[in-house]
Design a protein that fits this description.
The complex is a heterodimer. By secondary structure, chain A is α+β, with helices and mostly antiparallel strands. Chain A has three domains: about 45 residues, Uridine Diphospho-n-acetylenolpyruvylglucosamine Reductase, domain 2 (2-Layer Sandwich); about 110 residues, Uridine Diphospho-n-acetylenolpyruvylglucosamine Reductase, domain 3; about 110 residues, Enolase-like, domain 1 (2-Layer Sandwich), CATH 3.30.390.50. Chain A contains eleven helices and 13 strands. The radius of gyration of chain B is 17 Å and the shape is globular. Classes of the chains: A alpha+beta, B alpha+beta.
Chain lengths: ~290, ~180
């Protein structure tokens, strides 16, 4: 039987209360959101926090809105809520592509967007998704609020820039004028499993020229869950299959996948290239479809 | 710590350790052994119960997190002494073999039918994709849930006055192709 080690339990009634509790209990306290990463880690004694600060009552952190040209996602938004959000899917289909394949429907009822990002697993889908769409993370602490680009959010596996007395409260995704398209493609072995490899893409176009591109990669050892060199290549390039194939090759060259039970490194590198191409193709198709609607 | 929650519409109050998982609280302290403790890793779904209005894997929820909330288990599925149509469907269509996964399957099925009156077999399979039947009896589970959906559609028609065929012949079950 897997049971967590002993800990103190506190339930926060507001963001300020949660921050006060984190400050009071110090670095051995952890925020408890959906718990679907943290509790399994605690059962395996890979995590042994002394205090859990439960934020599940903080309805003020569960929302999806559009404001000031950004899609704003509260950190406590459940995966199922993001998947069910028409406004999210309308602006960023990549979010729904990913959410359809994250964990399973029951886990998605409970797991949260912010929790997944803060868990910072190297195979985490949303980290790649938000890297592709160049999101900004809003972090609150006792001394105020700061914002960090998604690509600077992760310090390494299971480690983020969120300090022990801070919490992630919001994810902001800029809605660039002129539309564009986005998509996420994942190869996994079964429902609920981590990806063998996954790629997300966001494209913005001026006619048939790519004005901006975002590529996110999960589970293949990409720095900051992204493929900056491939994005540099695409910026200003024609939106053609030749460009996409070249971008996929560049993305794969800059990955450092490791062999594990999900597959050998060579296969994962192959996936990084191929899935990047597929995500770009799908993103382009969606950009064209949107243009047709406009 | 002290917790109070409503379990199957009954208020209960208990003293628990913060680390006690909801599945163990339900089974060991409340004696509600219908929910099963399976893989312990939120993979199998044998422990699915409702927390407020949503199915959750209770091996990955702390009892403390359910404090002040409503929990519904398979024991709370039947109403007024009558089995839920989902339960009837599992009985009619041989929806269980060893029965270990059944409580979780039925709790998810009930939620699905509350949100999708006429789910396709593909939609049912998607809804159940986080739950495992080690007997591999998925065909009959899907059939059981379709039976319940059709039964409820027939009940709705009857309540609405029907379309001319409101004769109640006592046979509420739909025909299910074998």
């Amino acid at each position: 039987m897997q049971v967590p080690a002993h800990f103190e339990y506190e339930r926060a009634t507001s963001v300020q209360h949660a921050l006060a509790l984190l400050a009071k209990y110090g670095p051995e306290s952890r925020v408890l959101a959906g718990g679907h990463s943290l509790i399994p880690m605690m059962k395996l004694r890979l995590a042994q926090p002394e205090t859990l600060v439960d934020i599940n009552d903080l309805a003020e952190l569960a929302y999806l809105t559009v404001a000031d040209g950004e899609l704003r996602i509260g950190a406590l938004t459940r995966h199922a809520e993001l998947l069910g959000s028409a406004v999210a899917g309308q602006h960023f289909p990549i979010l729904h592509d990913a959410e359809r394949r994250i964990a399973d429907p029951i886990v998605r009822n409970r797991g949260t967007v912010g929790g997944s990002l803060c868990q910072a697993d190297p195979s985490e889908d949303l980290s790649a998704v938000f890297a592709a769409v160049r999101a900004t993370m809003v972090i609150e602490g006792g001394s105020g609020t700061r914002t960090v680009p998604e690509r600077a959010f992760h310090l390494g596996p299971y480690e983020t820039v969120v300090a022990p007395d801070e919490m992630l409260t919001e994810i902001r995704v800029p809605i660039l004028p002129g539309g564009g398209g986005s998509a996420y493609v994942k190869v996994d072995r079964r429902a609920g499993d981590w990806p063998v490899g996954a790629a997300g893409a966001a494209l913005w176009l001026d006619g048939d020229t790519i004005t901006e591109a975002g590529i996110g990669l999960a589970a293949v050892g990409a720095a900051h869950f992204s493929a900056a060199e491939a994005e540099d290549f695409l910026r200003g390039a024609p939106a053609t299959d030749e460009s996409f194939v070249a971008a996929g090759r560049i993305a794969a060259e800059h990955c450092s996948p490791v062999s594990d039970q999900r597959g050998p490194a060579d296969y994962k590198r192959h996936l990084a290239a191929e899935l990047t191409v597929r995500a770009l193709r799908r993103a382009l198709g969606r950009a064209h479809a949107r243009r047709g609607e406009a | 710590m002290r917790v109070t929650m409503s379990v199957n519409d009954r208020e209960c109050l208990a003293e628990v350790e913060p680390r006690l998982l909801l599945i163990h609280f339900l089974r060991d302290q409340l004696g509600l052994t219908g929910s099963h403790w399976g893989c312990d890793t939120s993979n199998c779904g044998a422990c699915v119960v409702w927390l407020d209005e949503t199915p959750v894997k209770s091996c990955t929820v702390l009892t403390a997190m359910a404090d002040g909330h409503r929990v519904r288990t398979v024991e709370g599925l039947a109403r007024g002494g009558e089995l839920d149509p989902v339960q009837q469907g599992f009985a009619e269509c041989h929806g269980l073999q060893c029965g270990f996964c059944t409580p979780g399957m039925m709790m998810t099925a009930r939620w699905l039918l509350d949100h999708n009156l006429d789910p396709s077999p593909a939609e049912i399979r998607e809804a159940l994709s986080g739950q495992i039947c080690r007997c591999t009896g998925y065909e009959n589970i899907v059939r059981s849930i379709r039976w319940a959906a059709e039964r409820e559609a027939a009940d709705r028609d009857r309540l609405a006055g029907g379309d001319g065929d409101d004769g109640d012949d006592g046979d509420h079950g739909p025909e299910v192709a074998g």
